[in-house]
Amino acid sequence: MTDMALPNIATCLLATGLCGVMLVAMQEKLVPIVPSVGLYLFFGLTAGSDLSAVVPLVVISAMGSLAGSLFWYYLACLSGTHPGLRPLSTWLRRLPAAQKTSSWYAASMTRMALVQLVPAARVYSGLASAVVSIGAVRFAVATFIGCLIWNGVLISAGWMVRHF
């Protein structure tokens, strides 16, 4: 069995402490090279021996995840106004999945937060949210809550595996 190794850039960023954690979490939302399950379990495995070390990791990684999601959100927002990105907006609006789920998804902050618990959907939820005209603040709050849950469960699980 081979060990899953983080890309060199991620290893270098993590060496910078919590700032690196935030940047790696943001990168995971932009280009998900390492699956988030493995990444956040790894964060927990490498956390300090005191349980209080987990809380900053969860919050900072959720902030990084939110930053990555906001990138996709604003890219989709710009796609409607910027001529070079207009084909992206047209394509996104025509996706059958986006049309079917838009009213269900947009109707509830809880649903928007729960999308962060679905590995593939959590990465690009910002695109869909902008296309169905969910406000930026509403999207950011729901996404941050969802990221706190997802990252918190995985980081805590990694910490517990190491310490129990």
What does this structure look like?
This protein has 164 residues and is mainly α. The chain has one domain. The chain has helices at residues 8-14, 18-30, 36-45, 54-79, 86-94, 96-106, 109-114, 119-131, 136-163. It is elongated. The protein starts with 7 loop residues before the first helix and ends with a helix. The model has no long low-confidence stretch (mean pLDDT 85).
Short description:
It is built from nine helices and no strands. By secondary structure, the protein is an all-alpha fold.
Mean pLDDT score: 85
Query: What is the 3D form?
Result: elongated
Tally of helical runs: 9
Nearest-angstrom radius of gyration?
A: 17 Å
Total separate domains: 1
Poorly predicted regions: none
- Percent helix, as a range, is over 70%
Main β sheet profile: none
Query: Approximately how much beta-strand content do the residues carry?
Result: under 5%
The rounded distance between the terminal residues' Cα atoms is 24 Å
Tell how many strands the DSSP assignment holds. Answer: 0
Order of helices and strands: HHHHHHHHH
Structural class per helix/strand content?
Answer: mainly alpha
Fill in the keyword field for this structure:
9 helices
Write the layout of secondary structure elements.
Elements: H1 8-14, H2 18-30, H3 36-45, H4 54-79, H5 86-94, H6 96-106, H7 109-114, H8 119-131, H9 136-163
